[in-house]
Amino acid sequence: MRALVGVSLPSYDEKTDAALLYSETDVTVLSVDKIRTHVREAYKILRPEGREHGTVYVYFNPQRKITNLHVGGIPVQGKTTR
């Protein structure tokens, strides 16, 4: 993900709040009643209105177990947070 920091982006119009730089979803079937989903996404937030792309939403119910969640960010200053 850190390699995406230096990627040059095309110019966007002033209405574009964020740009999706990377998206990957892996689904692994573990058994008849268990699956594992691994999602990785990277956005470049271009304007303050794009902050919603820096928010993580996880939908779950009593049958869905969340075992791990990692979130990170790289601010303009370049120091990685996690």
Keywords:
82 residues, mainly beta, 0% helix
Polypeptide structure, described:
With 82 residues, the protein is mainly beta. 0% of the residues lie in helices and 32% in strands. The chain has a two-stranded antiparallel sheet. A hairpin with a 2-residue loop joins β1 (18-31) and β2. The chain is elongated. The model has no long low-confidence stretch (mean pLDDT 84).
Instruction: Note the beta-strand portion.
Output: 25-35%
Given as residue ranges, the uncertain stretches (5+ residues, pLDDT < 50) are none
The level of helicity is: under 10%
- Globally, the shape reads elongated
Strand order of the largest sheet: 1-2
Query: How many DSSP H or I helices?
Result: 0
Structural class: mainly beta
Cα distance spanning the termini: 12 Å
What is the H-and-E element order?
Answer: EE
| Largest sheet report | 2 strands, antiparallel
Rg is: 16 Å
Strand segment tally: 2
Mean model confidence by pLDDT: 84
Brief overview:
With 82 residues, the chain is mainly β. It has strands at 18-31, 34-45.
Compile the SSE list and pairings.
Blueprint: E1 18-31, E2 34-45
Antiparallel strand pairs: 1-2
